[in-house]
Amino acid sequence: MESMTAKPGIERERWQEMGDEQLVTACIGPLLARLRGASETDKTAAYRSLSPERQDLFMLRVLDGHARGSAWEYYAWTGLLLQSPDQWAAILAALRRIGSLELLEALADTAAVHRKRLGQDAAGADASELHEKAEGPSLPPPEAQSIGSRQRSGAGCGNRRSL
Length: 163
Fold this sequence. Notes:
Elements: H1 12-17, H2 20-35, H3 40-48, H4 52-67, H5 71-82, H6 85-98, H7 101-118
Helix pairs in contact: 2-4, 4-6, 5-7
């Protein structure tokens, strides 16, 4: 399989002017388009090849892309994610890192509704995942900023390592 990761060729000035949706599309859009219809193995390999920041964008885009259409789509998609503990944990970790506590709480509430409907032994997360300890993904630092208020350094798509 050819490499699914590629740096977007964005000039520094353009990068500074882009809105959040444009940044996410520039950083993750081409990869997501190539992954449509791909095997789970290829999707997993592509995800693992991303920098941690791009992994966060990837998972948040997956949630947003599938759950934004309606309340029903949100409920159905969160139910599917709860059945995939690795994906659920990755989304929660991404939300913690960007400091989106309101969405974390909404997801915990939705997970509780799913568990109530399916029974207490149902697979999935509970509110304790909002505050994972050292073994799991860390809570965002107190100075964590929302995506919209982050400083854009021009580094592009949160590249800490070469892709």
